[in-house]
Every structure is written in structure tokens, then in C-alpha cells.
Amino acid sequence: MSVSNSFRLGSPDVFPPAERHVYLDAASVGLSHKGGAEAISKWQNALAEEGTIAFDEQAEVECLDNLNAATASLFNATVDDIAIASSETVLMQSLAWAVMPESGSRIIATDITHPSTIYPWMRVSDHTGAQVHWIRADDSQTIDPDELEASIDDSTSVVCLSQCEYGTGQQYDLKRFADKAHRHGAILVVDATQSAGQVPVDACSGVDAVATSTYKWLCGPFGTGMMYVSPALQQLNPGILGWRSHKDMWDFQADRLELANNAKRYEFGTMAYGTAFGATESVRHLLETGIENVAAHNAQVSKHLIAGLQDLGAEVLGPKDDANRSATVAVRFPGKNSRDFAKTLKDANVIASLRRDFIRFSPHYYNNIDDIDQGLKAIKAAL
Question: Which residue from 184, 192, 315, 339 has the fewest beta carbons nearer than 10 Å?
Fold first, then answer.
């Protein structure tokens, strides 16, 4: 797939700010799908005008069922394997308490993972006596995948990874680590918040659970999370329970607790349902566009960005091999304070993020080569 200078997979009709800004910040907050935002407003206005006349119990069920179905397609899973809640973090926390890694066992994580990926497991390990074993990144903020794989042994209970690291975009082969974990009786748990929407996320790779939020690469709203749960983990007792966890959630009786016999047991309570309408629209749009097409488009755009940044003398962090990179590009500019320079770029209408001591660019399918060239021109002027 070739990308012309003006070609965008996500059109400005769907993402209007893409025409006004050099927006390279999907890893922080993706541009919202216009139809998704309109769906949220429509639901909220109808609720304000008519209450449960507009949003009755059947509508409440269908609202999440539609997002469930879209997420199942996104993760190459079945609808019974999907749970919906208000964020990735609460789903991961509930899962961690369900798994309860035993005392003396090890939870493998990288030291450059996002806090929300590992904090739930650290909290549970404080309770059970499990230990977090850190795989340390090198000076370029890169994890050695061979070292990561070698660290998984018979003492391992959980391998907890971000499919794409939030800082550098380093991408992991999920099947490789799922297979190694399973050979040692461990599970692979994945945070897909930085991958879902920009690269394929395949439940058939052997992962035991995958959780994501929607407001980054999925171009959805804040306030919605989805999780794939393998059949084995669907038998566990979630750490967070509520009325939606019951197999007959509308039978409101406090003296009975019979959990749903699928991933729905990880759903627990009422949420801001309007966000689910918006998330459904954005996920469907990405599925219609084709995640493989998005990944190919983003790879070409980010490759052009990397080449231009290197021509300007920037130090590009993360893996050298394109096969292990996503669209996220992390750089340092020698002689420049990254915090100050990030503000300079924002003033020049180049929207990126400061992370640690580097600047993170994250173009998505609503960007094109012209955006990158415009951004590079502004960076050159600022330098």
C-alpha cells in the first residue's frame, strides 16, 4: 500500500481537526470520530428530554451488546468472551484480583510499561506475596525481547505486557510470549490501549486476556473500556462485582449471587452508557476501514516521520527494526530541553506529547504525508 502526500484513510469529514492542526498525538488522545461524538450527544439529549422512555431496559442491553459485537470483531473473538466497563484500568484491576497470583510466584513486566498496566498487579501482589520481576529497557528505551522471553520460567504466574509500549511504540509478538508463558503454566495478560485501532489484536494468538480503553487509537470517547477474557479465566471470581455480573442481571435480589457463565461476569455496574454509543461508532469505522489497512498506512506515515526527524539530527528511541515498531515515534533533540521544546512545537501547531525526557509523536490514519512535512518544517524552524 502506498500513501500519497494528501491521502488520509480517515477523512476530514470524520475527523475535522485533522485539517486545522498537525495532530500527531493519538497515543495521548486520538481525534474523536465525529459520528461517535454525535451519537453520544444524541443519546444524552434524548435522555434529558424523555428519561427511560428514550432509554429503557432493552435499550440499555442493546447499547452494550452492540459494542460487545464490534469489540469481538476487533479482537477476533466471540461475543461471549467480551466484557464492557468504564475503563481498561477497572477491568484489569478486577482481573488481577480474580487471578490472585500466589505467594512466591513472579509477575513479569517491563519497566517502561504504562502504570495502569501493572499497578493492578502490584496491588494484588502486595496482598498475596507474589513478586513483580522487571525487565529493564536500555538507554534507547528498548526492551530486549529475547531477555523478556528468557525471564519466563516455572516460577512465573503472569506475564503482563502492553502490546505496544506507550512511550516508544515498541511492539511485541503476542503469540511468542503466550506460548512461552503457557509452557510454564503462566498466563499472558495484555493492555491493548496503545495497540487496538492501529495494529491487529488477535485473541487467537493465545493471549489469556486483553483490555483496552477507547480514547486513543480507537478514536472513541473517554469512559469506556473493553476486555477479552479467555474461557479459562471466565470461570474465576472477578475482583469487582455488581448487578451486571449476575447471569440474570434484571432479577434484583440481593440474597443470590450467580455469576454469568461467560466474560459478562466481569461487567459490574451502571456506566455512562452514552460513551458506549460513541465507542461503537468509532470501532465500526475502523473495522470498515480495515485494521490491516490502518497499520500499513500508519507504518508508511511514521517511517516518513522518522526519516525526516533523523535528517534534522534527532535521536529516535525504541527498536531499530521496523517490524517491532508501531506508529509511535519517540525522539530526543540534542541540545534541547524536551519539556520546553514540546511547548515550542505546540505553539507552532504541531501537537505531540512530552513523555519522560523525550517527545512522542503518534500519527494515525487521519494523518498524511503532507501533515508530516508540515510538522517537520515547523520543527526545523524551531531548531
Answer: 339
